[in-house]
Amino acid sequence: MSSGSKQPSISDIPVKVVGARPAQSAFHWKRRLVQALTIGLAVLIPVSGLLRIDPEAGAFVVIDRQIWFSDFFLMFGLWVMLASGLVLLYSSAGTVFCGWVCPQNTMAELANTLTHRLLGKRADLSMSGEAPRVAAAKNKVLNWTLLGLGLLAAAMFFALIPLFYFYPPKMVWHFLTFRHDAELARSLYWIYAVCVLILFVDIAVIRHFWCRFSCIYRVWQHSFKTKQTLHIAYDSSRAQECAKCNYCATSCFIDLDPRKTDIYDSCINCGECIDACNRLHAKQNAPGLLRFEMGERVRKRASIRNATVSLLARAKWASTFTALGAAMFAWGLWTYEPYHVAVDHADIQQGRSIQDYRIAVSNKLYRPSELNVQVDGLPAGSYHLTADSIKLNAAGRGSLTLSVAPELKHGVYAVVVTVSAADGWADRFRIQHFSEQGQ
């Protein structure tokens, strides 16, 4: 080889690594997807009419139906079904709701992401009793301004969601576009401003402090958490592999050591520590030391069969109440009365019989309806109805007047007022009319 020829460098030789697994985040993006779907569902539930509150009527609305005290089975069945379903979730999956669904945790994680991007990866502004930690290179007015605007925008967005539970989407749009709407409360903008302020403080400084120390929901949940509940398990037989490594602990935004979880702790089963450990050991083509597990907290992995048997045993009574609530809810829907009819005296006369009756009709559905009215039990020509039908607005009310001729022959008459709708619904209200004529 001549002295002028160029020698090949070792770095120029292509190297192909076989068998190495890419770093994975099995739970992170799945959890983000569930959180996004939860927020979407929180808006879709009231917008679709599945469940909301009508402040004007002072009533719950389920599947676009006003719920009155007479609809006991429907409402009671719904709450029994939801409560027992949550108990079933607690006793099996533990705090998965907190880590994957809870809006408070979603808002706190969003605030953490914004803080780390603008003030440093290890920046901390939460209410922990310590001075705020900010990267010196990012401690700038612009970054603080952008963070404040970002947190304010998040607070304004999340404060809008409760409005959908009290007002239809059209009215919420009028609220956002500052259009006049007589059905909107005048103080609504002040109420919204207070909600935004509370959420801003919550997102900016409280964050996960609420989850760790102040959440009453978590305290109630502990009543149903057992040794067999889903939890983070640590493979202590490989403890030498994580000597002087705290990667899993630093990845935990609840400030826990995932290797030392207990039955009652602040772990929210988010799986971030499992992802962190797996990413670290993927470089050696080995599994991580952390995993989700059900069953007793022992060194040996609990079998799927034992975990399933344990789950079924603990879920038996909760699932029974869930099924009972579902049955009551279905029965309530089946027997639901979409309209309500009441007949009463139109006025009170001293020493004389009542001649006029008020027929009051209520539409419990959130769509316009037209109802027909028919009177039986009185001779033809002896009474007068102000109208044979009545048109009602969505969730509206109306009334007709039934006037009985004073010349009606003496006696007691069993009068039946029948109100019917085009969809086949009909109801009858019975009254007794006493005529003094000829006495």
Which descriptors would you attach to this protein?
439 residues, alpha+beta, disordered N terminus
Describe what this molecule looks like in 3D:
With 439 residues, this protein is α+β, with helices and mostly antiparallel strands. It has a domain of 97 residues: Sandwich (Immunoglobulin-like). Helices cover 38% and strands 18% of the residues. It has 12 helices and 13 strands. It has a 4-stranded antiparallel sheet with strand order 6-7-11-9, with no helix packed on it. It has a 4-stranded antiparallel sheet with strand order 10-8-12-13, with no helix packed on it. A hairpin with a 2-residue loop joins strand 2 and strand 3. The protein is elongated. The N terminus is likely disordered.
At the third CATH level, what is the topology name of one domain?
Immunoglobulin-like
CA-CA gap between termini: 140 Å
> Helical element count?
12
Radius of gyration computed on alpha carbons: 33 Å
List the helices and strands and how they pair.
Elements: H1 28-47, E1 51-54, E2 59-62, E3 65-67, H2 72-93, H3 96-100, H4 103-119, H5 141-160, H6 169-176, H7 188-206, H8 209-214, H9 216-221, E4 231-234, H10 247-250, H11 272-282, E5 290-293, H12 304-334, E6 339-345, E7 356-363, E8 369-376, E9 383-385, E10 389-392, E11 397-404, E12 411-421, E13 426-435
Antiparallel strand pairs: 1-2, 2-3, 4-5, 6-7, 7-11, 8-10, 8-12, 9-11, 12-13
Helix pairs in contact: 2-12, 4-5, 4-7, 5-7
